[in-house]
Amino acid sequence: MEVVEVVKPRKKPSQERAQRTVEAILQATAHILREEGAEGLSTNKVAKRAGVSIGSLYQYFPNKNSLILALATQHSDDQVREVAENIGLLFGASIHEAARRFVEATVSVHRQDPRLHLAITSEILVRGLGRALQDHARARELIAAWLRTRDDVDVDDPDMTAWMLVTAVESAVHMALFEDPDKLDDPAFTDAIVQMVVRTLGAR
């Protein structure tokens, strides 16, 4: 795998007009990734579709990598936000109910736009951009905090267990995206992951 330098956006938009420009650029990036894949993505194409000059684009995004990274970050932030909202409902729920809510939330955010998510996931792997994303770390922190409130699970190390759970669930969902996206709509797929989570927790 070729690891390339991660190039972050040059600056963050502070004014409303600049924010609209950046959002248009990211929407254009998403459209091209979804329809043409990374091979069809270029800064010129993005600028044209977004209706901005190439100079305006370069004020914020110096190259193709920075566009992909910014879109991946926005995408992962949206995912973590939805998962976090569901994790907030886990406190007081039974282990089986909590496991199902966590798994269903994870599956749901990947099912919303599978073509785009698949394109983004592929690119962050190929381009070595994964280290720049913190979605797994934030999800693990939330799960670990929840585990520390439970006395009905057989867990010695909440941090390690949270790492295993988030990684296992995300890996299963990502492999479904790569191999057979229809699995995301199959209740049996979700049920199987829920069973894995419950067994990992050694629920009492």
Please describe what this structure looks like:
With 204 residues, the protein is mainly alpha-helical. The protein is 69% helix and 0% strand. The protein is built from nine helices and no strands. The chain has helices at residues 16-36, 43-50, 54-60, 64-87, 95-111, 114-126, 135-147, 158-179, 187-201. Helix 4 packs antiparallel against helix 5 (95-111) and helix 5 (95-111) crosses helix 9 (187-201). The longest helix is centred in the middle third of the chain and has 24 residues, at 64-87. The protein starts with 15 loop residues before the first helix and ends with a helix.
Low-confidence stretches: 1-6
Element order, helices and strands? Answer: HHHHHHHHH
Terminal CA distance: 43 Å
SS summary, helix count:
9
User: Helicity level, as a percent range?
Assistant: 55-70%
Shape: elongated
Radius of gyration: 19 Å
Tally the beta strands. 0
- Characterize the largest beta sheet: strand count, sense, and whether it forms a barrel: none
Beta-strand proportion? under 5%
Sheet/helix structural class: mainly alpha
Mean pLDDT metric? 83
